[in-house]
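Duplicate of earlier report; Sterol regulatory element-binding protein cleavage-activating protein input re-posted below.
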Amino acid sequence: MKLVYPWLIRATGWVLKNPKSFILVPILCIYILAYGVVHDLTIRPLNKALALRSDSGPSLDFASTETIRSALSYGNWSLTKISLSSENVVKFDSLKGVHALEEALVSQNTQNQTSFVVSPLATWPNKSSSARQFEESALRALNHKHKPELINLFFDGLSKKNHLITAATTVNLYVVHNASLPPLEVSSPLKVSFFETSLAPNAATEFLKYFSFLIEDSLPIKLFNRTVVLVQMAICIAFVFRVYFCICNQHKIRSNIGLVCGWLVEVTLASAAAVRILSSYGGFQEWMSMFGPVSSYGAGTYVLAVMLFSSRTLFRTINDLAGDNSMEGHETLHKRLIRFYLGINNSARNSSDSIYKFTRFVRKWCFVDKFSSSIAPIPNSFVVLCLNLSGLSLIFGFIFALLHIFFTGIAWHVLVDKYRLILEAIVLALAIDHFLQQTFLVGIILIDLNRVELTDLLSKNPNLNDPEWNESNDTMGEIDPISSFILGLTGPLARPKPSSLRHIVGTHILKLSPVSSSRFWLGDVLSFFFWNFFCQVFITLFVLPFNLLTDDAKVVLIGHQAKCRHSYDWLFYLEVGATILFIVAVSELTFTLTYSQRQRKEIDPTATLEASSSLEYTELAKQEQTKYFECITLNKGHNIDVIKIATNSKSSFLVSADLDRNVLVWSPLSEAEKKKPMSISTTIDSLEEQTHPRFWPVNHIEISDEGNYIVLVNYRHSVIKCFERESLSFIWEINLVKETGLSTKELKPMLAFFRKKTIAGFLARRLLMKRRSGSDGRRSSVSSTASSSTITGNYPPPPLPIHEDNATENKVKDFEQSLNRDEFVMVFEKGHMITVSCTDRKVRHYTMFEDVYGKDLVSENLRVTTAKQLTTSRVSDRILCDLVNGDIIIASAVNNVWKFSRLKTSKTSFNSRSNQVLPAPASAMGRTFSSMDTDFSSIFKQNFSNSRPTEFPTPKRRFAPINHCTIETIDFVGMVVRVRDLKAELLDTQTGIIIKTFFIGHFKPGSFRVIHSEPTHCKFCGCASVETLSLVYEDFYDPTLIVHTFSLENRKSRNNICLRVERDPREIRCLGFDATTEKQYWYHDIEKWEVTDMNVVMGIRRADAKNSDESEVREEIVDRKSEELSSLRKRKSKVPSAPEKPKLNDLWQGFVVTVSNGQLLEYKIPFGEDEDESEFACVRPNVIAKYGYKAVAIAFGRKIKILYLGGRKLIESDLYYKGSTSSLKPILQPSDAAVNRNELLFINKRRRMLERRKKKEPEY
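Output:
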């Protein structure tokens, strides 16, 4: 048993308590180390702009080389270098002497003797200026106009003070001439220190070409240079935006822009620090000249390479630290931080990526895990860094090999030295960047995981004196504003057409994610380096004077570093201190806004672990262990793919149909019937034909709650047929066209279900009391209990407790069964509705449109868009129909007769922050009981009538709705969620009040679901309440599962979402949906999924996203085989062996999503000893259906697997009233404590009180 290092627990606890120090100390150390480079990149350009703008003196600069290059086209020209030295050549006397020497050399030009002088003082002004102006102009040119290559070429012996040149001891003049030069005469204080003519061929031509490149005098070279620099800048900017969009689409970080800015600061400082270290210890006087004669391309390659490889470790750091659920509370943050430094994966999503698999392989076989658990912690990002450096070394080795093949001599040495320095700088920068990621960036992510946005605090609490202002909750991560603007999410009028370029770009941005390892190395890295390699080689070969590099006279020293002496005064140190103080002040302000006082208070008692706690390494690594679903396999029935699965969550039976038109009934929970399904394939007997056609297609299958009746629906012939399990035969068949007199187009089913026919409560009680009381006619406690717990209205009786005589109870159950007969209900698109009695085949036809609107007012275009059954305890069965005109029709079963009414909806302002205070009554109320208004009905009616208009006009839509109209029910409280375009409305069916409006995305038709946590009673009012409510759907364009979870995170009240608040103006103590916080979770590459009653989503997805390229690989294999078969000359060639069939768990991965916190857990699919796993892997999952209250049934080809977690009890008719757990937490985290009774207290209270009273009564 290995324990986690106590010092690691203490260190990570200190990090959580002091995140500001953990951020500032490392970044300030690297900032001070890289300050010289940072100064030249930030402050120096600012000084340059100010200095050149205020320049009013003479302009000293280089002259154009066009005249010289035109003269070099004929004749024999030589190149001579003249070096003039003095104590300070930038003084006016020295400058004047240099200019006099230039004039003397040019004044002796004749027809046969011509000389051109290339000098930094070529633009000497004709008008007179003061000596001070000349000196300032020369220093200004040296510090702000000339490139480092030009300064090294023309000056030497530099003196710098605070990174600015103040003096130079040598100035070089280059003379291009076609005859011998006369003797030189220089005035004091100058003296000639070097005078030599080059012996290299074409020395003057090559020098002018190189000099023209430096001063950008040649237009083609200037355009190429500018183009390459702009392309590098564009690539850099595009890559930054790509990283930003990838982080946004991961939905793990709240402040995506803040994290990207922090990452850019980290990369910049790491790159600058690496250059500073190499320039200091490599003998370079100036860091800007470190990358060779053509430094711009080398610097661009260096920075982009560091960004490219740093982003790889950045994504891994986010995944490992934030995990699958970045919105979790900070109670688990300490363990996540320990896992991160130990290299234990916090994100189950990484397991499908090849970089994760290869990282695990390296950690296992290179003994990294043993080293991390026994000696020192090694995070996964360090392994990724080592892999990046290994790949980088291979790429540069390949580049060096190419240089060795195609280049020799001095060109090979120049290019190799350049790339060697770039490689050293990249390696050192990545090492420093990794250090900053483990400290600086980790601190930023830790703060972000517990961040409170000031804007949300102000919007949620307008009153700054409110004590809850500091107690507010974390908000959802920020929305990507760029893709939102492109897709026009601000309103329907701003949305582009799906075929437009704007829409394509917007959807592409939403799909961006970190690329796979193969694409990263083969696509991004290789393309970038080889493009840069081409630019480097081209410009180096075209510009560099290789003949002068091998010149023995050493006239032109390419790449020479001018000697430089640095000095600093108090202004420099004041500048450094001021910048550090500014950084600390900005970070303190940012820290104050993003890290609330509540988090500082709660981080000590809840987030950190004690160093003495025996935290085991295996406990932290438990998440990486392989986990399997519990499974029931149905494999001995179908011979071809299953295309339909029908279930009833209250019944254990399952019906499946395949492509061979076979319909089978399974009993998965019965070991005997599971192996031998029953076929109910049949024919259509009601058609007037000689031959009875096969009952196909089976468009819909419905199962009754007890599983005794199964109805098959055929849309083509409008026929329904009922199968009874007791008689094992079809008991009736109905042709709807003949029965109703309607056409086939009018009989498009929208809803079909079974319900229990009810009986009058008085008659039922009387008969049951008479049957249970016995022959003595005495009403005992048993009969009293029975009569109180049976039917008391128009609804089925709840199940009775098991007690007393079994024979009597069996008789009672048989009698109750005779009273409660099943009937089948169907709702059609044109407003028609039928009910069929399952026992006597009695059909009843309803026309809801005529009952609601009147026969003469029904429009031909009026139709039902969606319909749902709503079953609520102690309330009549209801059907909700959403019409195309926006109305909602409610059908209620009253004494087994359906009544129809239109539900008028309205938005409520009860108990919301926008609600106005009710005015005080005109007269003061007395203190006596009789004078107090305890009804409050007048206030309710007045407020309700004022907030709700009497009639809602139906506006004419200018655009087609994006989402199909959908209704999802919340049965236990009688509410529904109605989808209208990009909005979902939580609607109370009793009053028509729209409690909450949710904003959703574009989802696939039929994929919208609503799930909630286990309902309980509110702590204040006793009404129904839930901990979380979630909207789940699949994105329309991608296989992406999107979850919107709404919950209360007010730590002060610790209350659930009360469903009474928005419906009752008197309730002001509870918190409703107006106080909820929305959180979004996105899960990509989802193949099949379904929600369960345990507030989770179960499904299956691809184990590796890169398997989408499988079809391309197969096509290549087929083409290759066809070529072999078509050639007789290859008839003896060996056909390559067929690849081994993959296993199912290699292609498909099961998963469970707990929507309350967004956590995704991966599970493998188990297989028995007699099962062939490759048979499951050769096909995709066909269909998925919910089974029971905690399982899903998935069809793989011809076989069906029922996946679940926990015990084998999968069916529960009354989930919230029978004591069965409706939460996944006890299954995932078993506890030794006693299991609490799981029930809805406000419904079951009366029944439990009667049970207690019965136990206390004495027996006679």
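The CA atoms of residues 825 and 835 lie 4 Å apart.

Merging into the original ticket.
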